[in-house]
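Before a colleague's protein record goes any further, I have to sign it off. What it holds is a sequence and that sequence's fold in C-alpha coordinate form. Would you go through it and say whether the fold makes sense for this chain? The record follows directly below this note.
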Amino acid sequence: MSENTTTTTTAPTENLRERALKLDATDPLAGRRALFALDDGVYLDGNSLGALPVHVPARVQDVLTRQWGELRIRSWDESGWWTAPERIGDRIAPLVGAAAGQIVVGDSTSVNVFKAVVAAVRIAGEGRDEILVDATTFPTDGYIASAAARLTGHRIVPVAPADVLAALGPRTAAVLLNHVDYRSGRLHDLPGLTAAVHAAGAVAVWDLCHSAGALPVGLDDHGVDLAVGCTYKYLNGGPGSPAYLYVAERHQTVFDSPLPGWNSHADPFGMTAGYAPADGSVRGRVGTPDIVSMLTLEAALDVWDGVSVDAVRAKSLALTDFFLECVEAYVPAGRVVSVTPAAHAERGSQVALRCAEAEPVMRRLIERGVVGDLRRPDVLRFGFTPLYVGFADAERAARILADVLAEVPAGNTVG
Protein backbone atom coordinates (compact mmCIF):
# COMPACT_ATOMS: atom_id res chain seq x y z
CA MET A 1 0.00 0.00 0.00
CA SER A 2 1.45 3.37 -0.96
CA GLU A 3 0.43 7.02 -1.17
CA ASN A 4 -1.05 6.33 -4.62
CA THR A 5 -2.89 3.12 -3.74
CA THR A 6 -6.61 3.34 -3.10
CA THR A 7 -7.81 -0.15 -4.02
CA THR A 8 -7.96 -3.23 -1.85
CA THR A 9 -7.45 -6.89 -2.55
CA THR A 10 -9.73 -9.64 -1.35
CA ALA A 11 -8.24 -12.28 0.90
CA PRO A 12 -10.45 -14.43 3.11
CA THR A 13 -10.02 -13.65 6.79
CA GLU A 14 -9.56 -17.31 7.65
CA ASN A 15 -6.72 -17.64 5.13
CA LEU A 16 -4.82 -14.76 6.68
CA ARG A 17 -5.37 -16.11 10.18
CA GLU A 18 -4.16 -19.54 9.12
CA ARG A 19 -1.11 -18.06 7.44
CA ALA A 20 -0.34 -16.06 10.56
CA LEU A 21 -0.43 -19.17 12.73
CA LYS A 22 1.82 -21.06 10.31
CA LEU A 23 4.29 -18.18 10.20
CA ASP A 24 4.38 -18.01 13.99
CA ALA A 25 4.90 -21.76 14.21
CA THR A 26 8.06 -21.55 12.10
CA ASP A 27 9.38 -18.27 13.51
CA PRO A 28 12.86 -18.82 15.02
CA LEU A 29 12.34 -15.83 17.34
CA ALA A 30 8.90 -16.92 18.60
CA GLY A 31 10.30 -18.26 21.86
CA ARG A 32 11.59 -14.80 22.82
CA ARG A 33 8.04 -13.62 23.48
CA ALA A 34 7.95 -15.59 26.74
CA LEU A 35 10.80 -13.41 28.04
CA PHE A 36 8.51 -10.36 28.22
CA ALA A 37 5.65 -9.28 30.46
CA LEU A 38 2.74 -9.03 28.03
CA ASP A 39 -1.03 -9.27 28.33
CA ASP A 40 -3.59 -10.69 25.91
CA GLY A 41 -3.63 -7.55 23.78
CA VAL A 42 -1.46 -6.56 20.83
CA TYR A 43 1.36 -4.24 21.84
CA LEU A 44 2.56 -2.26 18.82
CA ASP A 45 4.18 0.65 20.61
CA GLY A 46 7.61 -0.79 21.31
CA ASN A 47 9.03 1.95 19.10
CA SER A 48 8.05 4.34 21.92
CA LEU A 49 8.51 2.13 24.99
CA GLY A 50 9.66 -1.47 24.87
CA ALA A 51 7.97 -4.16 26.93
CA LEU A 52 9.37 -5.24 30.30
CA PRO A 53 11.56 -8.37 30.27
CA VAL A 54 10.17 -10.61 33.00
CA HIS A 55 13.48 -11.17 34.77
CA VAL A 56 14.27 -7.49 35.25
CA PRO A 57 12.29 -6.77 38.47
CA ALA A 58 14.24 -9.39 40.41
CA ARG A 59 17.54 -7.99 39.16
CA VAL A 60 16.51 -4.46 40.09
CA GLN A 61 15.45 -5.70 43.51
CA ASP A 62 18.99 -6.98 44.03
CA VAL A 63 20.38 -3.57 43.03
CA LEU A 64 18.13 -1.89 45.57
CA THR A 65 18.31 -4.26 48.52
CA ARG A 66 21.78 -5.81 48.32
CA GLN A 67 23.96 -3.51 46.25
CA TRP A 68 22.56 -0.26 47.60
CA GLY A 69 20.93 -1.47 50.81
CA GLU A 70 23.78 -3.64 52.11
CA LEU A 71 26.97 -2.81 50.25
CA ARG A 72 26.14 0.88 49.88
CA ILE A 73 29.20 2.88 48.75
CA ARG A 74 31.22 -0.32 48.31
CA SER A 75 29.09 -1.15 45.26
CA TRP A 76 30.94 1.39 43.15
CA ASP A 77 33.79 -1.12 43.16
CA GLU A 78 32.38 -4.43 44.35
CA SER A 79 29.23 -4.34 42.19
CA GLY A 80 30.88 -2.70 39.21
CA TRP A 81 28.90 0.53 39.33
CA TRP A 82 31.84 2.67 38.27
CA THR A 83 32.52 0.76 35.05
CA ALA A 84 28.86 0.29 34.11
CA PRO A 85 28.71 3.01 31.40
CA GLU A 86 31.44 1.38 29.32
CA ARG A 87 30.52 -2.21 30.19
CA ILE A 88 26.91 -1.73 29.08
CA GLY A 89 28.11 0.21 26.06
CA ASP A 90 30.08 -2.85 25.01
CA ARG A 91 26.88 -4.92 25.23
CA ILE A 92 25.03 -2.50 22.97
CA ALA A 93 27.92 -2.30 20.50
CA PRO A 94 27.19 -5.56 18.60
CA LEU A 95 23.58 -4.48 18.13
CA VAL A 96 24.68 -1.40 16.20
CA GLY A 97 27.73 -2.87 14.48
CA ALA A 98 30.45 -1.37 16.64
CA ALA A 99 33.58 -2.86 18.13
CA ALA A 100 34.07 -2.66 21.89
CA GLY A 101 35.39 0.51 23.49
CA GLN A 102 33.44 3.01 21.38
CA ILE A 103 30.11 3.35 23.18
CA VAL A 104 29.44 4.91 26.56
CA VAL A 105 26.02 4.76 28.22
CA GLY A 106 24.62 7.66 30.19
CA ASP A 107 22.57 10.86 30.09
CA SER A 108 19.59 11.36 27.75
CA THR A 109 19.52 11.26 23.98
CA SER A 110 19.16 15.05 23.94
CA VAL A 111 22.28 15.55 26.05
CA ASN A 112 24.22 13.13 23.86
CA VAL A 113 23.06 14.90 20.69
CA PHE A 114 24.44 18.12 22.15
CA LYS A 115 27.79 16.50 22.97
CA ALA A 116 28.00 14.88 19.54
CA VAL A 117 27.11 17.94 17.45
CA VAL A 118 29.46 20.28 19.31
CA ALA A 119 32.26 17.71 19.18
CA ALA A 120 31.57 17.16 15.47
CA VAL A 121 32.03 20.81 14.51
CA ARG A 122 35.19 20.94 16.62
CA ILE A 123 36.51 17.88 14.79
CA ALA A 124 35.65 19.49 11.44
CA GLY A 125 37.80 22.47 12.32
CA GLU A 126 37.88 26.09 11.25
CA GLY A 127 36.58 27.42 7.94
CA ARG A 128 33.32 25.46 8.10
CA ASP A 129 30.35 27.23 9.64
CA GLU A 130 27.25 25.23 8.68
CA ILE A 131 25.48 22.38 10.48
CA LEU A 132 23.05 20.47 8.28
CA VAL A 133 20.10 19.08 10.25
CA ASP A 134 17.40 16.68 9.12
CA ALA A 135 14.39 18.98 8.60
CA THR A 136 12.03 16.08 9.37
CA THR A 137 13.81 15.09 12.57
CA PHE A 138 12.27 14.51 15.97
CA PRO A 139 11.91 18.11 17.24
CA THR A 140 14.38 17.82 20.12
CA ASP A 141 17.24 17.04 17.75
CA GLY A 142 16.55 20.30 15.95
CA TYR A 143 16.31 22.26 19.20
CA ILE A 144 19.56 20.84 20.49
CA ALA A 145 21.40 21.34 17.21
CA SER A 146 20.30 24.98 17.16
CA ALA A 147 21.66 25.45 20.68
CA ALA A 148 24.93 23.81 19.62
CA ALA A 149 25.11 26.17 16.65
CA ARG A 150 24.65 29.22 18.87
CA LEU A 151 27.37 28.00 21.20
CA THR A 152 29.87 27.37 18.42
CA GLY A 153 29.00 30.28 16.13
CA HIS A 154 27.69 28.05 13.36
CA ARG A 155 24.59 28.33 11.19
CA ILE A 156 21.83 25.72 11.12
CA VAL A 157 20.71 24.55 7.67
CA PRO A 158 17.51 22.44 7.81
CA VAL A 159 17.45 19.99 4.93
CA ALA A 160 15.37 16.98 3.97
CA PRO A 161 17.44 13.79 3.90
CA ALA A 162 16.77 13.46 0.18
CA ASP A 163 18.37 16.87 -0.38
CA VAL A 164 21.50 16.38 1.73
CA LEU A 165 23.74 15.65 -1.27
CA ALA A 166 22.83 18.93 -2.91
CA ALA A 167 23.25 20.88 0.35
CA LEU A 168 26.73 19.60 1.18
CA GLY A 169 29.59 21.96 0.47
CA PRO A 170 32.89 23.43 1.67
CA ARG A 171 31.11 25.27 4.49
CA THR A 172 29.52 22.10 5.93
CA ALA A 173 31.01 21.14 9.28
CA ALA A 174 28.61 18.46 10.50
CA VAL A 175 25.43 16.70 9.42
CA LEU A 176 22.88 15.38 11.94
CA LEU A 177 20.48 12.81 10.53
CA ASN A 178 17.96 10.26 11.79
CA HIS A 179 18.51 6.70 10.63
CA VAL A 180 14.75 6.03 10.69
CA ASP A 181 12.14 8.78 10.51
CA TYR A 182 10.11 8.71 13.71
CA ARG A 183 6.85 9.65 11.99
CA SER A 184 6.83 7.70 8.72
CA GLY A 185 9.22 4.84 9.46
CA ARG A 186 11.36 5.67 6.43
CA LEU A 187 14.87 4.20 6.63
CA HIS A 188 17.52 6.59 5.34
CA ASP A 189 20.67 5.56 3.50
CA LEU A 190 23.24 5.61 6.29
CA PRO A 191 26.11 4.16 4.22
CA GLY A 192 25.57 6.41 1.20
CA LEU A 193 24.91 9.60 3.14
CA THR A 194 27.86 9.01 5.46
CA ALA A 195 30.15 8.55 2.47
CA ALA A 196 28.83 11.74 0.89
CA VAL A 197 29.34 13.71 4.12
CA HIS A 198 32.93 12.49 4.29
CA ALA A 199 33.54 13.32 0.64
CA ALA A 200 32.52 16.89 1.46
CA GLY A 201 35.01 16.97 4.33
CA ALA A 202 32.34 17.05 7.03
CA VAL A 203 31.49 14.90 10.07
CA ALA A 204 28.46 12.56 10.16
CA VAL A 205 26.30 12.29 13.29
CA TRP A 206 23.47 9.76 13.30
CA ASP A 207 20.47 9.40 15.61
CA LEU A 208 19.72 5.67 15.98
CA CYS A 209 16.68 5.88 18.29
CA HIS A 210 14.35 4.13 15.83
CA SER A 211 16.82 1.66 14.33
CA ALA A 212 18.98 0.19 17.11
CA GLY A 213 17.57 -3.18 18.04
CA ALA A 214 15.35 -3.35 14.96
CA LEU A 215 17.81 -3.60 12.07
CA PRO A 216 21.54 -3.78 11.32
CA VAL A 217 23.26 -0.40 11.57
CA GLY A 218 26.91 -1.08 10.79
CA LEU A 219 28.51 1.92 12.47
CA ASP A 220 32.07 0.66 12.04
CA ASP A 221 31.61 -0.83 8.58
CA HIS A 222 30.15 2.39 7.20
CA GLY A 223 32.62 4.74 8.85
CA VAL A 224 30.15 6.68 10.98
CA ASP A 225 31.88 9.34 13.05
CA LEU A 226 29.48 9.87 15.95
CA ALA A 227 26.10 8.42 16.84
CA VAL A 228 23.54 8.61 19.62
CA GLY A 229 20.53 6.56 20.57
CA CYS A 230 18.02 5.80 23.27
CA THR A 231 17.57 2.43 24.98
CA TYR A 232 13.89 2.42 25.97
CA LYS A 233 12.46 1.51 22.56
CA TYR A 234 13.64 -1.66 20.81
CA LEU A 235 16.30 -2.26 23.49
CA ASN A 236 13.60 -2.46 26.21
CA GLY A 237 15.62 -0.63 28.87
CA GLY A 238 12.61 0.90 30.61
CA PRO A 239 11.07 4.38 30.75
CA GLY A 240 13.77 7.04 30.71
CA SER A 241 16.58 4.49 30.58
CA PRO A 242 19.94 6.10 29.79
CA ALA A 243 20.96 6.80 26.22
CA TYR A 244 24.33 6.10 24.63
CA LEU A 245 27.02 7.89 22.67
CA TYR A 246 29.21 6.28 19.99
CA VAL A 247 32.57 7.88 19.30
CA ALA A 248 34.52 6.15 16.53
CA GLU A 249 37.92 5.06 17.77
CA ARG A 250 39.70 7.27 15.26
CA HIS A 251 38.07 10.37 16.80
CA GLN A 252 38.47 9.57 20.48
CA THR A 253 41.75 11.43 21.01
CA VAL A 254 40.23 14.63 19.60
CA PHE A 255 36.70 14.25 20.94
CA ASP A 256 36.18 17.56 22.74
CA SER A 257 33.02 17.37 24.84
CA PRO A 258 31.16 20.59 25.60
CA LEU A 259 30.22 19.03 28.96
CA PRO A 260 33.54 18.05 30.60
CA GLY A 261 32.31 16.58 33.87
CA TRP A 262 34.32 14.96 36.61
CA ASN A 263 33.35 11.47 35.43
CA SER A 264 35.24 11.98 32.17
CA HIS A 265 38.38 13.31 33.85
CA ALA A 266 41.61 11.35 33.46
CA ASP A 267 41.89 11.35 37.26
CA PRO A 268 38.32 11.77 38.50
CA PHE A 269 39.20 11.40 42.17
CA GLY A 270 42.16 13.74 41.97
CA MET A 271 39.70 16.64 42.28
CA THR A 272 42.06 18.99 40.47
CA ALA A 273 40.94 22.41 39.28
CA GLY A 274 42.08 21.81 35.71
CA TYR A 275 40.33 19.40 33.35
CA ALA A 276 42.25 16.63 31.60
CA PRO A 277 40.11 14.25 29.51
CA ALA A 278 40.26 10.50 30.00
CA ASP A 279 41.20 8.16 27.20
CA GLY A 280 38.69 6.39 25.00
CA SER A 281 34.91 6.49 25.13
CA VAL A 282 35.08 7.57 28.80
CA ARG A 283 35.39 11.10 27.39
CA GLY A 284 31.67 10.93 26.70
CA ARG A 285 30.78 10.71 30.38
CA VAL A 286 29.72 13.79 32.34
CA GLY A 287 28.46 13.35 35.91
CA THR A 288 27.55 10.53 38.27
CA PRO A 289 25.74 7.76 36.35
CA ASP A 290 22.09 6.96 37.06
CA ILE A 291 22.90 3.55 38.49
CA VAL A 292 19.40 2.14 39.06
CA SER A 293 18.25 2.91 35.51
CA MET A 294 21.58 1.86 34.07
CA LEU A 295 21.58 -1.54 35.75
CA THR A 296 17.93 -2.02 34.78
CA LEU A 297 19.04 -1.56 31.19
CA GLU A 298 21.92 -3.98 31.66
CA ALA A 299 19.53 -6.65 32.90
CA ALA A 300 17.10 -5.99 30.04
CA LEU A 301 19.83 -6.55 27.46
CA ASP A 302 19.95 -10.22 28.47
CA VAL A 303 17.03 -10.86 26.10
CA TRP A 304 19.47 -10.27 23.23
CA ASP A 305 21.78 -13.10 24.21
CA GLY A 306 22.07 -15.45 21.24
CA VAL A 307 19.96 -13.24 18.95
CA SER A 308 21.14 -12.24 15.49
CA VAL A 309 20.25 -8.70 14.40
CA ASP A 310 19.95 -10.06 10.86
CA ALA A 311 17.25 -12.47 12.07
CA VAL A 312 15.46 -9.60 13.78
CA ARG A 313 15.56 -7.59 10.55
CA ALA A 314 14.22 -10.48 8.49
CA LYS A 315 11.28 -10.93 10.84
CA SER A 316 10.65 -7.19 11.02
CA LEU A 317 10.29 -6.95 7.25
CA ALA A 318 8.11 -10.05 7.11
CA LEU A 319 5.87 -8.71 9.89
CA THR A 320 5.40 -5.29 8.35
CA ASP A 321 4.80 -6.83 4.90
CA PHE A 322 2.15 -9.12 6.38
CA PHE A 323 0.48 -6.33 8.35
CA LEU A 324 0.22 -4.16 5.23
CA GLU A 325 -1.23 -7.13 3.33
CA CYS A 326 -3.85 -7.62 6.05
CA VAL A 327 -4.70 -3.93 6.04
CA GLU A 328 -5.18 -4.09 2.26
CA ALA A 329 -7.49 -7.06 2.67
CA TYR A 330 -9.58 -5.83 5.58
CA VAL A 331 -9.78 -2.03 5.44
CA PRO A 332 -12.15 -0.28 3.02
CA ALA A 333 -10.47 1.64 0.22
CA GLY A 334 -9.59 5.23 1.00
CA ARG A 335 -9.78 5.06 4.79
CA VAL A 336 -6.05 4.65 5.38
CA VAL A 337 -2.93 5.10 3.26
CA SER A 338 0.54 3.90 4.20
CA VAL A 339 3.20 6.59 4.39
CA THR A 340 5.83 3.97 5.20
CA PRO A 341 7.88 3.00 2.13
CA ALA A 342 7.03 -0.30 0.51
CA ALA A 343 10.65 -0.95 -0.44
CA HIS A 344 12.50 -2.96 2.20
CA ALA A 345 15.65 -0.88 1.75
CA GLU A 346 13.68 2.21 2.81
CA ARG A 347 11.63 0.79 5.69
CA GLY A 348 12.36 0.69 9.40
CA SER A 349 10.34 -1.48 11.78
CA GLN A 350 7.09 0.45 11.94
CA VAL A 351 4.08 1.11 9.73
CA ALA A 352 2.54 4.58 9.65
CA LEU A 353 -0.95 4.90 8.21
CA ARG A 354 -2.46 8.24 7.32
CA CYS A 355 -6.06 8.34 8.52
CA ALA A 356 -8.37 11.36 8.56
CA GLU A 357 -9.97 10.12 11.79
CA ALA A 358 -6.69 9.13 13.44
CA GLU A 359 -7.42 10.39 16.96
CA PRO A 360 -10.75 8.60 17.58
CA VAL A 361 -9.51 5.53 15.72
CA MET A 362 -6.39 5.14 17.88
CA ARG A 363 -8.39 5.74 21.03
CA ARG A 364 -10.79 2.92 20.14
CA LEU A 365 -7.95 0.62 19.08
CA ILE A 366 -6.33 1.02 22.48
CA GLU A 367 -9.67 0.37 24.19
CA ARG A 368 -9.79 -2.95 22.30
CA GLY A 369 -6.28 -3.95 23.26
CA VAL A 370 -4.37 -2.89 20.14
CA VAL A 371 -1.85 -0.38 21.43
CA GLY A 372 -0.18 1.81 18.84
CA ASP A 373 0.28 5.54 18.98
CA LEU A 374 -0.73 8.73 17.23
CA ARG A 375 1.28 11.42 15.51
CA ARG A 376 -0.94 14.43 14.98
CA PRO A 377 -2.75 15.35 12.98
CA ASP A 378 -3.47 12.18 11.04
CA VAL A 379 -0.89 9.39 11.45
CA LEU A 380 -1.56 6.04 13.11
CA ARG A 381 1.80 4.56 14.04
CA PHE A 382 2.38 0.85 14.70
CA GLY A 383 5.78 -0.39 15.87
CA PHE A 384 6.77 -4.01 15.29
CA THR A 385 9.27 -5.35 17.82
CA PRO A 386 10.32 -8.74 16.42
CA LEU A 387 11.38 -10.17 19.78
CA TYR A 388 7.80 -10.23 21.05
CA VAL A 389 5.37 -9.34 18.24
CA GLY A 390 4.07 -12.21 16.13
CA PHE A 391 2.20 -12.63 12.86
CA ALA A 392 -1.07 -13.43 14.63
CA ASP A 393 -0.68 -10.07 16.39
CA ALA A 394 -0.30 -8.33 13.03
CA GLU A 395 -3.38 -10.01 11.58
CA ARG A 396 -5.46 -9.30 14.67
CA ALA A 397 -4.43 -5.65 14.73
CA ALA A 398 -5.41 -5.16 11.08
CA ARG A 399 -8.74 -6.91 11.62
CA ILE A 400 -9.61 -4.79 14.66
CA LEU A 401 -8.51 -1.67 12.78
CA ALA A 402 -11.04 -2.53 10.07
CA ASP A 403 -13.75 -3.05 12.70
CA VAL A 404 -13.00 0.30 14.31
CA LEU A 405 -13.04 2.12 10.98
CA ALA A 406 -16.44 0.60 10.27
CA GLU A 407 -17.71 2.26 13.46
CA VAL A 408 -16.00 5.64 13.16
CA PRO A 409 -17.73 7.91 10.62
CA ALA A 410 -15.51 8.72 7.70
CA GLY A 411 -14.37 12.31 7.41
CA ASN A 412 -12.15 13.29 4.56
CA THR A 413 -10.86 10.16 2.90
CA VAL A 414 -7.19 10.00 2.06
CA GLY A 415 -5.42 8.90 -1.03
